[in-house]
Hints:
- It contains 9 helices and 16 strands.
- It is α+β, with helices and mostly antiparallel strands.
- It has 2 domains: about 1-115, Rossmann fold (3-Layer(aba) Sandwich), CATH 3.40.50; about 130-285, Tumour Suppressor Smad4.
- Strands 6-5-16-13-8-9 form a 6-stranded antiparallel sheet, covered by helices on one side. Strands 12-11-10-7-14-15 form a 6-stranded antiparallel sheet. A 4-stranded parallel sheet has the order 2-1-3-4, sandwiched between helices.
- Helix 1 (about 20-30) packs across helix 5 (about 105-115), helix 2 runs parallel beside helix 3 (about 70-80) and helix 6 (about 140-145) crosses helix 8 (about 160-175).
- The chain starts with a strand and ends with a strand.
- The model has no long low-confidence stretch (mean pLDDT about 90).
Amino acid sequence: xxxxxxxxxxxxxxxxxxxxxxxxxxxxxxxxxxxxxxxxxxxxxxxxxxxxxxxxxxxxxxxxxxxxxxxxxxxxxxxxxxxxxxxxxxxxxxxxxxxxxxxxxxxxxxxxxxxxxxxxxxxxxxxxxxxxxxxxxxxxxxxxxxxxxxxxxxxxxxxxxxxxxxxxxxxxxxxxxxxxxxxxxxxxxxxxxxxxxxxxxxxxxxxxxxxxxxxxxxxxxxxxxxxxxxxxxxxxxxxxxxxxxxxxxxxxxxxxxxxxxxxxxxxxxxxxxxxxxxxxxxxxxxxxxxxxxx
Length: 294
């Protein structure tokens, strides 16, 4: 099997201070199943370009070795092609890998990749950009856009919590009104976070979209109200098991086409990372458009 391994040399090295690259390369050298080439990324967008070229060159699989951001880039180069996406998770949260049952240890992840069958899943789309996991509008996007890169490198997933704690109070004071149109039906809502999911999981082991299925041709929309601190805590605790959707004020929908219009400009995050642009946002599902091997 002809494979391209795309490695983000910075992924996973922050808190450990040790690059995961030698371990990843060793795992694949021991597996003759792959006719393997290796590409180390040089900056933002490089993984997308390398994956797109690999698909044009007829590679069977492109393997993203990194975090959810690296997977996001590689997937954007493979959507709509015959080349499958593989994953070796060495990131901060590894949301997609955990959701799909990919082992977090490189040697085991490599073995999992060999044994898995290729299948096709949905992706979401915002403008010309695709996402595999979720898009977030509101407070989570605000955190992603205001998260210092050095803090993320030093503290990993804890950096999101620290930034959230610093900014939540001031963010809640502003009005957050939205008009959301789901397959032609419009709702007016007040919200703190609006998550549009292709998978069940989210960062921090939370499950905002418990009914999401990665190949059902739908996106799941969970809207969290701008509630008081006690209710926010209840929602967060309940979200560990996906039971938050039964709480008062939490709204849950499924749709193929979604339009979000807000009173004030809002930012967006895609698969956990800040993405440029501001509302309104038009989001849609692209059914069974990404081949994967996990």
